[in-house]
Amino acid sequence: MRPLTDSVPKPLLPVAGRPLIVHHLVALAAAGISDIVINHAHLGERIEQQLGDGRAHGVAIRYSAEPSGALETGGGILQALPLLGSAPFVVVNGDVWSDFPYARLPRRPAGLAHLVLVDNPPHHPDGDFSLVAGRVRPRAAGALTYSGIGVLTPALFAGCRPGRFPLAPLLRAAIDRDQVGGEHWPGRWVDVGTPERLQALEALLAAG
Hints:
By secondary structure, the protein is of the alpha+beta class. It has one domain (4-206): Spore Coat Polysaccharide Biosynthesis Protein SpsA, Chain A (Alpha-Beta Complex), CATH 3.90.550.10. 25% of the residues lie in helices and 26% in strands. The chain starts with 13 loop residues before the first strand and ends with a helix. The mean pLDDT is 94.
């Protein structure tokens, strides 16, 4: 996403007149999800300065700052678990946008996690996982893409040690044990990973 992110963290990039992350906050608040933990790394202090305690957006925000070098998704969530508590929690990647209605997420997944899967975008044509009768399976023909939205349980991270590690291997291990449910969202979803996709999202929202 450089050079856009040289001075602005990706979640603060403006889309349709507001930072990308604010679109998440507004949608979460509308679904009754108001206790938010934001995990940040690159230029994370800018996120704290701009969003503050979240009151302006109808939520209450706490922050989990990663050390220099970042922790990847798995390590970042593990570090944030003391703030998240012992109950299942909603996870939303900061660099995606979707019209997915968060209120439809289960309060407790049937297993260790519940993933929202979407149709494969052009830059990821093979997908990540398959979905069979509401259960997430290893990738096969007709696989879908993990949206970066879901419900995770702290138990998914049992045995993990603090440090840098990705989330995907934990999900795959849980999937192999039939511990991950899921759903397919056929609505709009954008992985805002390049300036071109950011422009496409801007055009999408401008068109209503």
